[in-house]
Amino acid sequence: MPSPSDSGKSQISDNNIQHDEALESLGIVVGEIAHDFNNILSLIFGYVEMALSEIPEGQRARSDLEHVLAASDRAKEHIARILTFSKSTKIGRKEIAIARPIINATNYISDRLPVNVKLSSTIDDNEDKKILSSETEIYQVIKNLCTNSLQALSDSGGEIKVKLEYFSNNSEVSRQYQGLPNGDYAKITVTDTGCGMDMDTIEKMYVPFFTTARGDDKSENRAGLGLTTVYNIISSQNGVIFIDSAPNEGATFEICLPLLSPQKKEEDVRSPSVEKILEPKHILLVDDEPSIIEMLNQILEKNGYSVTSFIDGNEALEHFRQQPHEFDLIITDLIMPSITGTELALKLSAINPNIPIILTTGFSEKITEATCAQWGISTVINKPVSIHDLLATIESQS
Predict the structure, then answer these.
(1) Of the CATH numbers 3.40.640.10, 3.30.70.120, 3.40.109.10, 3.40.50.2300, which one belongs to the domain with range 282-396?
(2) DSSP assignment, residue 184?
(3) Residue ranges per domain, the chain?
(4) Which of 38, 183, 251, 371 is disulfide-compatible with 383, CB 3.0–4.6 A?
(5) pLDDT by residue (tens digit) across 331-348?
(6) pLDDT in tens, 264-289
(7) Residue 327, Cβ density class (10 Å: 0-12 exposed, 13-18 middle, ≥19 buried)
């Protein structure tokens, strides 16, 4: 017969398994919803950008549409935040100057703070200090930490400070951060004058939906995924988080992220302008959403491309099989009912291995460089995509 302690361990294990299964199911549902939302955002981005290209500078309608585009960008960031929490997808990362998204986030937050709350920032905006990340992720880290600080302040207000600086782990500063691997680091500090946290709260603060509220009207605001998202982002980038807090003494979050080694700057690669396509191309376009097909047809034809489109992947496959050298490029959606984009790509590349295939997706956790090579896919575009990036991607396949 198991001892009471053994029984307790078994119960904890069972609970953990159920928790992981629940999160996995949540991730699947979140992915499906994200796919649908990104399709909707693709339509908004596409049609707004087409309209902007025809409206002269200084017109009121242009300003209004730019606000729509900015709101769409924020919606895109929220979807990325949810997907980051679910761990069901990876946001594309590249070399970025870390200061830029931090400045953007603090400016956004400053404009929306109560009058009795002060946000001050000290940002070393050295453009040569770069990390491997995405601007969306760093923006979200700052936004979530500042939101957490705001919720910790009393009704009378307080102060939040954001600081960005840099250090080498062989410097005097690094001695307080034991265990960091060799290298140079960016250090983000977010400090508030709020209620602070005891050790029990600190140990639980990364748990999804954990809240310190107890039945007051702030409970809805104080329970969420903010700190969980911060932890997931920073840990996935080989960063570390240090917390210094005590009850009634505020809180300080210190984040250390590894900087990339200085490299020679690559030549500026400019995407083709609307008027200067390198060469005319005939594109095979496949997407099960008629509205997406209609929009992409307009964008591509307006920019000088010839397009043959299908909403059924099997019909596209049969057409291609009969005329395998008619097309210069294929663009296919990933999630389609009759045949998936990866299955379609595999069959198309078997017929003509030399044709570039661009895969578009609103959500997938399974797309990697290795799997793309197996399927014959040249590159992946994450929805929603701007016209500028779409045209640049197409021309990069020349």
Answers:
(1) 3.40.50.2300
(2) E
(3) 19-86, 94-258, 282-396
(4) 38
(5) 999 888 889 899 999 999
(6) 433 333 334 444 444 678 999 999 99
(7) buried
